[in-house]
Amino acid sequence: MEATTKDLRLHTAELLAAADRGETVIISYRGKRRAVLKRWQDGESESTRGERNPAFGIWSDRTGPMKM
């Protein structure tokens, strides 16, 4: 199924229902495919999707208040 960003904004519930039925919804913006909406698999975890973002916790070794 294909939908536009306007369809996504106006008919979110219907598109989510289609994804729940197992359909893959391709979202397009200005005629170009931009995203895919599909059903979430419960067995899929955060660690299987990719590594942790290296920028997360970038200031963890910093002590004291920040000076501006």
From TrEMBL:
Residue stretches of biased makeup (Basic and acidic residues): 41-52
Region: Disordered, residue numbers: 41-68
Name of the molecule in the record: Type II toxin-antitoxin system prevent-host-death family antitoxin
Organism of derivation: Natronocella acetinitrilica
Lineage: Bacteria, Pseudomonadati, Pseudomonadota, Gammaproteobacteria, Chromatiales
